[in-house]
User: What shape does this take?
Amino acid sequence: MRKDVRILLVGESKVGKTSLIMSLVSEEFPHVVPYRAEEITIPADVTPERVPTHIVDYSEAEQTDEQLFQEISKANVICIVYAVNNKKSIEKVTSHWIPLIIENTDKDSRVPLILVGNKSDLVEHSSMETILPIMNQYSEIETCVECSAKNLKNISELFYYAQKAVLHPTGPLYCPERKD
Ligand code: GTP
Ligand code: MG
Assistant: This one.
């Protein structure tokens, strides 16, 4: 059995990575957050899968590319966060984040990815229509979830999915040849 699980959150600035982590830890929305949350370790007995879980934040303002690449290579699962009300942050998932992650991970050890649409409290419609084609394009993507750090919707689910992606990977049902 695995010793522990290391979850890394990446994504464009201001999509709410730090807020998601702090909301999970304090069970309330933090109105003021630092650029980067301290790495936190959740003890095994309070995680759904009973495995110590490290949650690691990323901030472009506080970290170099080299530090980011290192964190990517250490992660067991990576949450790519976008904001559902920010189209640009969704475009960057495929134009920037997925290629960067693939470049910085070992070809033989597949790192599962989770697409996280934060700020669901700000929109009526879901981003799933935009996200599904991306899911079908990359077999690395384990699942996707829409959530809100603000009203705490799907926050514990998100971290549960991340844990589960490492401990019981399923892979997508449909996995076409990559088109690039
Ligand atoms: P960087 O550290 O700069 O990369 O940003 P970040 O991705 O960590 O985002 P951060 O947590 O700092 O949040 C950015 C802004 O979005 C803050 O003003 C948050 O209060 C706000 N925010 C975060 N999550 C939510 C959410 O779920 N809903 C709403 N309405 N606002 C949110
Ligand atoms: Mg931050």
